[in-house]
Design a protein that fits this description.
- With 346 residues, the protein is mainly α.
- The protein has 14 helices and five strands.
- The protein has helices at residues 22-35, 47-50, 57-74, 91-100, 105-109, 112-118, 127-141, 155-171, 173-178, 227-236, 255-268, 272-279, 284-309, 313-342, and strands at 9-14, 40-45, 82-85, 147-149, 190-192.
- The strands form two sheets. The chain has a three-stranded parallel β-sheet with strand order 1-2-3. The protein has a two-stranded parallel sheet with strand order 4-5.
- The chain is globular and about 70 Å long.
- The chain binds adenosine monophosphate and tryptophan.
- Residues 14-15, 23-24, 26-28, 150-151, 153-154, 198-200, 209-210, 212 line the site of adenosine monophosphate.
């Protein structure tokens, strides 16, 4: 079964957990902007996901608005697309319960992100952190979304969402047909993980993902960093002593060089081959100067606009509220159909 019988629809989410960075931009937000021309798009600030680990309530309110501001500042049009925060649409939590009864414990036990986040403390972390991927499946399936732009780190969660959709369709096949929904109720959502920077690495350590929670601020470029900070972080970024290679194969075993070339390519919108054709054979210093230029060019205006937008929280709240109403209008009938299929009385 594929997504072919379903109306194409894009859904993605970003957690309001502070320090939005270049990885979030290149892995996700930049793609949100590109997709809005061709698809109906729903972009969600996933605050229910954020509280799977402890959050300061006042800081959470601030970061929910900041993520919405980042979407808008990057170029997502809130009139054409739906921008909202997850907790305002109850279908997410309700569907997550139903799908939690479809998903199997064995499936969740394989999730590498849970293992990384829980570390040695598997008995001490929240139940929500464990069932996080089920909520993510509910986010997507509540809209019967067919395409999900995300970074590489979310690939396994997307596969789980597909498995859950498939099992629901199989478990309830007779009821789905009897309720007039044909052979399959949920689509198999496809991950959109494309381009030169689907996994942006730390600027300090090419073996670690660039992350909001890295204690070293120099490890990431934050979307709100000013030009001088961006320049300083790029110039300090870890490299190796060799010149840049002329071909992609020469990046093998050189994670820091590979990362910087990928970042340049994704920011400039060119393939990595083109970057090497231009800078291969040269020293890192010249390449880094060019990288600073393209990074400041691209991120400077976004950071500036984010900072301006967050000074008007009422305007952001109005966008989130209207987005939530529009999202609810799509999700409510789908959730209603799920209730009928499962056999609830309503
Ligand atoms: P999160 O901040 O975990 O909610 O992530 C929001 C989006 O950014 C998801 O689509 C992630 O896959 C993506 N993302 C996060 N970190 C990176 C990274 N280092 N490189 C590429 N994409 C990333
Ligand atoms: N788990 C995603 C992340 O951490 C965020 C997310 C939640 C999401 N729900 C989603 C992404 C639905 C895509 C679709 O990056």
């Amino acid at each position: 079964m594929t997504t072919t019988n379903f109306q194409p629809r894009v859904f993605s989410g970003v957690q309001p957990t502070g320090n939005l960075h270049l990885g979030n931009y290149l892995g996700a937000i930049q793609k949100f902007v590109a997709l809005q021309n061709d698809y109906e798009c729903i972009y969600c600030v996933v605050d229910l996901h954020a509280i799977t680990v402890a959050q300061d309530p006042l800081e959470l309110k601030r970061t929910i608005r900041e993520v919405a501001a980042a979407f808008i500042a990057a170029g997502v049009d809130p009139a054409k697309n739906i921008i909202f925060n997850q907790s305002q649409v109850s279908a997410h939590a309700e569907l997550a319960w139903v799908l939690g009864c479809t998903a199997r414990i064995g499936w969740l036990n394989r999730m590498t992100q849970f293992k990384e986040k829980a570390g040695k403390h598997t008995e001490q972390v929240s139940v929500g952190l464990y069932t996080y991927p089920v909520l993510m499946a509910a986010d997507i399936l509540a809209y019967k979304a067919t395409h999900v732009p995300v970074g590489e780190d979310q690939k396994q969660h997307l596969e789980l969402a597909r498995d859950i959709a498939q099992k629901f369709n199989n478990d309830f096949a007779a009821s789905i047909a009897a309720n007039g929904h044909g052979e399959a109720f949920f689509p198999q959502p496809e991950p959109l993980i494309q381009g030169a920077a689907t996994r942006v690495m730390s600027l300090r350590d090419g073996s670690k993902k660039m992350s909001k929670s890295d204690p070293s601020d120099a490890s990431r470029i934050n979307l709100t960093d000013d030009a001088d900070t961006i320049a300083a972080k790029v110039r300090k970024a870890k490299t190796d002593p060799e010149p840049l290679p002329l071909e992609i194969a020469g990046l093998e075993g050189r994670p820091e060089a590979d990362n910087l070339v990928g970042i340049y390519a994704a920011l400039a919108g060119v393939p990595k081959e083109r970057v090497l054709a231009e800078f291969g054979g040269g020293q890192f210093s010249g390449f880094k100067n060019a990288l600073v230029d393209v990074a400041v060019d691209k991120l400077g205006p976004i950071g500036g606009e984010m900072k301006r937008l967050v000074t008007e929280p009422d305007a952001i709240d109005a966008i989130l509220k209207s987005g939530a109403e529009r999202a609810d209008a799509i999700a409510r009938p789908i959730l209603g159909a799920v209730k009928d299929i499962v056999g609830f009385v309503r």
